[in-house]
Write a structure and sequence with these properties.
It is built from nine helices and nine strands. Helix 1 crosses helix 2, helix 1 crosses helix 3 and helix 6 crosses helix 8. The C terminus is likely disordered. The protein has about 270 residues and is of the alpha+beta class. Helices cover about 40% and strands about 20% of the residues. It folds into two domains: about 70 residues, Winged helix-like DNA-binding domain superfamily/Winged helix DNA-binding domain (Arc Repressor Mutant, subunit A), CATH 1.10.10.10; about 170 residues, 2-Layer Sandwich (Beta-Lactamase), CATH 3.30.450.
Length: about 270
């Protein structure tokens, strides 16, 4: 028999997930409506959440997420969580495709490799978990750069020098911006001999349950073997693996459902 769920815990997290962006103040009744809870139950929950610092109360009885959530988030080892969640999924991916696969996140202005998986006969990549690389020359990096707010992306593009790692590395800023716009439009990125002259790479985003890019997953192949059919095969398998990882990291339930993105009022 399955262990029964603690409904109070589920309802409390449903209430917290009903906040849509960090600068909004929301009434208890509106949060209850978004969470699909009776107003009286929602009010009791929000009072308890306020007592423990999970929410703060402002003027006119409106609420925002509190500092308790910030302190809790600092205890989350994001890279380790991703690596453990991805282990079985990416092992299956490399076995299916006979490739070397990576999982990466953006830390500051560098891509940090979170995980690496390969087979005895897949292309040897001189990378390791924990290592960092400039993002502009890799598929992983292009995915992660494409998700940055425009101001942060502009700062990255214009502050540092784009050094050529191979004769194929994009070092022109306008060309890189156009490449990132194409990545946003297509939903995947390519590294075509840009980080290593004998290697191509396909990368796709890993998203959270609100659709935000939190990581990127890639597969590498020898350049001479990267036919259009092979690229398509790798891309489809990567999308499937990334979606599986997202579902594993952010399991859906009838109670913890997503809320629709908020629409800001017109000025």
């Amino acid at each position: 028999m399955a262990t029964p769920k603690n409904q109070s815990v589920l309802k409390a997290f449903t209430m917290l997930k009903s906040f849509r962006h960090p600068d909004e103040w929301v009434t208890s009744s509106e949060l209850s409506r978004r969470a699909g809870l009776p107003e009286a139950s929602g009010y009791r929950l929000i009072q308890t959440l306020e007592e423990i610092g999970a929410v703060v109360r402002g003027e006119r009885g409106r609420y925002r997420p509190g500092l308790l959530l910030v302190s809790l988030s600092q205890n989350v080892a994001i890279a380790e969580c991703l690596r453990e969640a991805a282990r079985e999924i990416m092992a299956g991916l490399v076995k299916k495709l006979n490739v070397t696969a990576h999982l990466g996140i953006l830390e500051g202005v560098m891509v940090t490799y979170v995980a690496k998986f390969g087979t005895p006969s897949s292309i040897v990549a001189h990378t390791r978990p924990g290592a960092q690389l400039e993002p502009y020359s890799t598929g992983l990096g292009k995915i992660l750069l494409s998700a940055l707010p425009q101001a942060e992306l502009d700062n990255f593009i214009h502050e540092g020098e784009l050094v050529a790692l191979t004769p194929y590395t994009i070092t022109d800023r306008a060309q890189l911006l156009a490449e990132l716009e194409a990545v946003r439009r297509k939903g995947f990125a390519m590294d075509e001999r840009e980080s290593r002259a004998d290697m191509d790479c396909v990368a796709v985003p890993v998203r959270d349950n609100e659709g935000r890019i939190i990581a990127a997953m890639s597969a590498s192949e020898r350049h001479d073997d990267m036919t259009p059919a092979r690229q398509n095969e790798m891309r489809l398998a990567l999308f499937e693996a990334a979606a599986s990882l997202s579902r594993k990291m952010y399991p859906e339930s009838a109670t913890l459902r997503r809320t629709a993105p908020a629409r800001r009022p017109a000025a």
